[in-house]
Amino acid sequence: MTTIIQPAGPWQQAASACFTLAGLFSDILIIRIFLFLAYVWLLTGSVTGFQRWPLFAFSGSISLDGMIWSSINCLVHFAAILQLLWDERPISFASEDEQQVYHFLYRRGGCEGLEAKAIISRGSFRRVAANETILNPMEATQKLILLIEGKARCIRRSKDDAEGTSAPFLSGMMTDKSLLNILGVYTGFEKEDVSFEVVAEKDCLVIEWTLEMLDEIATRCGPSVAAYFRNFVLCQFAIEMEFRSYAAECAKCSHGILEDSSWLQGARSRDFSQPLAEPPHQGSRVWRAIKGCCTWVFNSLTPKMPPGIRHKALPISGLAARRRLLTYSLAEKRRLKRQQSLFATASGLIHRLSSRRRVG
Questions:
Q1: 106-118 pLDDT tens trace
Q2: Among candidate residues 86, 106, 102, the one with its CA nearest the CA of residue 94
Q3: Which of 8, 71, 149, 307 is most open to solvent, judged by the fewest CB atoms within 10 Å of its CB?
Q4: Residue 52 burial (CB < 10 Å; 0-12/13-18/19+)?
Q5: Coil, strand or helix: which one is 127?
Q6: Which residue, among 73, 117, 112, has the nearest Cα to 94 in the 3D structure?
Q7: Cα–Cα distance, 12 to 196 (Å, whole number)
């Protein structure tokens, strides 16, 4: 005959409640907090001998395996909580230029400070004097450049047009967009018979990413980094296309407002130079914190998961474009190495021949 045993003690009941609450929220931090609390209660129950309801005091015996497993799980989830809380820390930048690039990424892609720092740290700043080359055709397949300040000209050449066509290259613009296929979304511009060169007309400041760093942003950083960068690229396409397609006198910033006339002469885009606006504060700091936490918890309460939550957002065509870019870039890198090797060999031969002539 089946008998109903006495209910589990208070510690096991509290653990079960925490496990249930972990399944009702979608925010990973709240989930981890409830899982950590659940194993804390199970650890307490193991130490007190898993008393039956309503007893909860020490029974004179302990559960060794329960203590071991509960302790391991407490450490695992507590470490995750610390990491998630650390991700929400205020982010500081090493220089004013880095701070302004963060402003630019935030306005054009919604990029938060942590992700912006990951993107910026994988790039390098470079100052280029007037009339010097910012990007030559040999580097165009290996580097992505964002112009921060200054005025330059982008020259596009093909096999049928050796002189090429030129277009203004101003603050906020980026070089060869074919490199953005690395993000896994097809962006086009895959023309192997076209070369690009960017020459500074005034002193310029740029930030540049090598193809290896772009690949790291797309695949080895957190998923939010690549997602923010894709948002940023979409905004870049829209702003530059509107500026070039409609032959506008001045481009618009991310707020849909025309840039200042000084932008055409090399000044920084408004998306770089203007500081981020602080949201209006209502009530005391304690009240805002309480209200923010309540809103966060309420918005995270989703007992029913949205459909397709495990599906990936990258299309097959984009992944294929990414593979083509990497293959082409690798071939170009090998070709450049062969050219450099041949040049070094030829230089060495010329040097030896000239030395022999002088000796003779």
A1: 999 889 999 999 9
A2: 102
A3: 307
A4: middle
A5: strand
A6: 117
A7: 67
For 10-77, the DSSP string reads HHHHHHHHHHHHHTTB--HHHHHHHHHHHHHHHHHHHHHT-PBTT--S--S---HHHHHHHHHHHHHH
Highest mean pLDDT among 18-22, 138-142, 176-180: 18-22
**pLDDT at 354 (0 to 100):** 65
Distance CA 261, CA 245 (A): 19
Cβ(143)–Cβ(210) below 8 Å: yes
DSSP codes of every residue in 177-191: GGGGGGGSS------
Would you say 188 and 178 are in contact if contact means Cβ atoms under 8 Å apart?
yes
What strand order describes the sheet that includes 124-128?
124-128, 204-210, 143-149
Phi/psi at 8 (nearest 5 deg)? Answer: -65, 160
CB 140 within 8 A of CB 325: no
Whole-number pLDDT of residue 99: 94
By the 8 A CB rule, do 308 and 169 touch? no
Q: What is the DSSP string of 138-191?
A: TTTTTEEEEEEESEEEEEEEETTEEEEEEEEEETT-BS-GGGGGGGSS------
- Tokens 């892609």 locate to 109
Spatial neighbors of 222 by CB under 8 A, at least 6 apart, are 115, 118
To the nearest 10°, report the CA torsion of 305, 306, 311, 317: -170
Tens of pLDDT, residues 336-357: 666 666 666 666 666 666 665 5
| Beta bridge pairs of residue 210 | 143
pLDDT (tens digit, 9 = 90+) per residue, 249-285? 788 888 888 888 899 899 999 999 988 877 666 667 7
* Residue-level pLDDT at 325: 58
pTM: 0.77
**Amino acid in the structure at residue 5:** I
Helices and strands counted in the chain (H then E):
10, 7
Say which amino acid occupies 44: T
